[in-house]
C-alpha cells in the first residue's frame, strides 16, 4: 500500500485535490492522508475513510507525526503572505520533515518562472523548489498558472462600474482554473512522472486584457472597458479601496509580471498528466455567472 499525504487539505485547492484523488484518480480512501492545522475541518473527509492528521508548518513535532509512514507527499504552498520570510520558512520546515521521515517522492505547488517572476511571493516558491532539489529525493514540481478564480475577487465590482483598471499593458496570461490545477496535482500524486520533473499547468490559450474583458463582458451580459493605468495608479486605487498593503503589492506585481511576459506561456503538461484538455476561460466563466453578477 502506498500512502499519499496532502497538506493544506482543508483549503480550497487541498479539498479539490482530495476530491480528484477519490473520484477522478480512483485512489482508495485508505491510501490517502489529509493533513491540516485544524483536523476538525476535515470531518467530512474522515467520514469517507480518509485518514486525517494535524500538520502545522510552524510546529516541527506535528510535521514529524504527520509525515510518518508517508510514501508521497503533496506540499501545498501555505497562505502566509503577510509575514516577510514566513511562508518560505514554513515550506522549508515541511520539506525537511519529509526528508527526515523518508518520504520517497515530494510534490509541490509552485508558480510559472519563479526565477524571473515579478510577483511579490515568487521568492517563496523559488526558495522552496531549491530546498526540495537539495534533498536529493525525487520530486514533481507543479507550477500552476494564475487561477481563473482570482478574477472573481475584483471582476464583479469592475463589471458593476463598467471599467477594468489594469496595469497588464499588452501582456498576455494563460489562466487555468483552480479545479484543473487540483486535478493535475491529484494525477501527479497518484501516478508521479518517473524521476524528477518540473511541470507548468496552464490554460489552452494566452490572452491579453482586451480579450479577457470581452469574455467577462459576454458571460455577464455587461460592457467592460479596459482602462490602462500605471503600477502606481493601480496601487493608489487599491489602497484607496481599503485593500491591505500585502494584497496591493501582490496584485500590482502580478499585473507587472503579465506585462513583462512572464505569464505568457502555454504548455501541454496538464493534458500529459490527466489525459484531458484544460478548461478555457470562457467555459469557466459560463459556470460563474451568478458570481459575476455580484
Automatic annotation (TrEMBL):
It comes from the Bacteria. CDD domains: TMR_SDR_a. This is NAD(P)H dehydrogenase (Quinone). It holds the Pfam family NmrA. PANTHER family: NMRA-LIKE DOMAIN-CONTAINING PROTEIN (PTHR47129:SF1), QUINONE OXIDOREDUCTASE 2 (PTHR47129). It comes from Neorhizobium alkalisoli. Residues 3-285 form the NmrA-like domain.
Amino acid at each position: 500500500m502506498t500512502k499519499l499525504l496532502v497538506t493544506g487539505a482543508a483549503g480550497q485547492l487541498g479539498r479539490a485535490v482530495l476530491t480528484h484523488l477519490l473520484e477522478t484518480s480512483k485512489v482508495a480512501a485508505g491510501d490517502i492522508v489529509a493533513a491540516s492545522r485544524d483536523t476538525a475541518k476535515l470531518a467530512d473527509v474522515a467520514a469517507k475513510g480518509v485518514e486525517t492528521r494535524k500538520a502545522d508548518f510552524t510546529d516541527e513535532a506535528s510535521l514529524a507525526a504527520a509525515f510518518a509512514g508517508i510514501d508521497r507527499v503533496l506540499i501545498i504552498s501555505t497562505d502566509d503572505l503577510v509575514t516577510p520570510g514566513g511562508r518560505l520558512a514554513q515550506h522549508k520546515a515541511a520539506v525537511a520533515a519529509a526528508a527526515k521521515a523518508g518520504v520517497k517522492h515530494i510534490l509541490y505547488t509552485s508558480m510559472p518562472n519563479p526565477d524571473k517572476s515579478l510577483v511579490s511571493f515568487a521568492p517563496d516558491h523559488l526558495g522552496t523548489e531549491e530546498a526540495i532539489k537539495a534533498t536529493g529525493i525525487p520530486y514533481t514540481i507543479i507550477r500552476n498558472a494564475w487561477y481563473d478564480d482570482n478574477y472573481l475577487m475584483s471582476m464583479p465590482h469592475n463589471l458593476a462600474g463598467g471599467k477594468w483598471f489594469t496595469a497588464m499593458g499588452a501582456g498576455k496570461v494563460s489562466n487555468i482554473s483552480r479545479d484543473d490545477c487540483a486535478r493535475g496535482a491529484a494525477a501527479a500524486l497518484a501516478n508521479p512522472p518517473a524521476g524528477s520533473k518540473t511541470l507548468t499547468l496552464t490554460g489552452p490559450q494566452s490572452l491579453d486584457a482586451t480579450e479577457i474583458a470581452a469574455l467577462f463582458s459576454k458571460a455577464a451580459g455587461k460592457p467592460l472597458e479596459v482602462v490602462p493605468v500605471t503600477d502606481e495608479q493601480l496601487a493608489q486605487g487599491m489602497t484607496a479601496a481599503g485593500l491591505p498593503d500585502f494584497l496591493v503589492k501582490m496584485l500590482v506585481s502580478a499585473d507587472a509580471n503579465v506585462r513583462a511576459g512572464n505569464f505568457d506561456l502555454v504548455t501541454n503538461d496538464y493534458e500529459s498528466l490527466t489525459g484531458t484538455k484544460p478548461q478555457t476561460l470562457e467555459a469557466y466563466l459560463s459556470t460563474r455567472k451568478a458570481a459575476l453578477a455580484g
